[in-house]
Amino acid sequence: MVEEMLAARGIGVTYETVRQWGRKFGKPFSDRIRQRTPPRGDKWHLDEVVISIAGEQHWLWRAVDQNGFVPDVLIQRRRNSRVAQRLMKKLLKSAGTPPRVMITDKLRSYGAARAKMGLHVEHRQHKALNNRAENSHQPTRRRERIMTRFKSSRQAQRFLSVHDQVANLFHIPYPGAATADFRRASRERAFATWREISMTSAIADSRPLRIASFGSAVD
């Protein structure tokens, strides 16, 4: 998404430059987006998917509300009730209030974590009901291929935490009868918010700037 934003302004940079910008500005930007985020939906879809990091199996845990927004993600080596409980605590910390409904697959860890935490919420367990959460993993798979897999769990956690929050900003759950004008206005509001958060100008230079290389920083 960063590459597309820069391309729209006529700016070409190396992947290393984008990576370093992400490391430096990603978390502050995502924190600002979270501060502006309105209350999310009261129906949480929770799901976990296996990802390979440095040749080792890890689990990506993700929550999605009924409107397609991603409250948070968590990457862990294990797939048990302790990790499910950690994910729920993380979600409750950001949401403030528990959901009305929690939808998961047949993994028993969710029910065990819910019981340990004493959450009195409706829990629906059915694989067919959780398509929204499963579909939310697709952008991660695409980025994983582009980045030729994640290098470490820390890098993956840092990247996905920022990536999903920026994607939330530009995610517009259109009503069925939404007009083209409504969609265009919603998109413009999202870009206006992004410009305010990133403190960038809405007007690009009249002559596109092409940068072949901006140097290579090291970790």
The CATH C-level name of the largest domain is Alpha Beta
Q: Label the overall shape.
A: globular
For the biggest β-sheet, the strand order reads 3-2-1-4-5
SSE order: HHEEEHEHEHHHH
* CATH topology name of the largest domain: Nucleotidyltransferase, domain 5
Main sheet characteristics: 5 strands, mixed
Count of beta strands: 5
Distance between the termini: 23 Å
CATH evolutionary superfamily of the largest domain: Ribonuclease H-like superfamily/Ribonuclease H
Question: Which structural class do you get from the secondary structure elements?
Answer: alpha/beta
Strand % is 15-25%
Number of domains: 2
Low-confidence segments, ≥5 residues, pLDDT <50? 203-219
Features:
single chain; alpha/beta; Nucleotidyltransferase, domain 5; 48% helix; globular; DNA-binding; transposition; DNA recombination
Characterize the structure shown.
The structure is a single chain. The protein is α/β, with parallel strands linked by helices and 219 residues long. The chain has two domains: 36 residues, no CATH class; 153 residues, 2-Layer Sandwich (Nucleotidyltransferase, domain 5). Helix content is 48%, strand content 15%. It has eight helices and five strands. The protein has a five-stranded mixed sheet with strand order 3-2-1-4-5, with helices on both faces. β4, α4 and β5 form a beta-alpha-beta unit. α2 crosses α7 and α3 crosses α4. The chain is globular. The chain starts with a helix and ends in a 21-residue tail after the last helix. The C terminus is likely disordered.
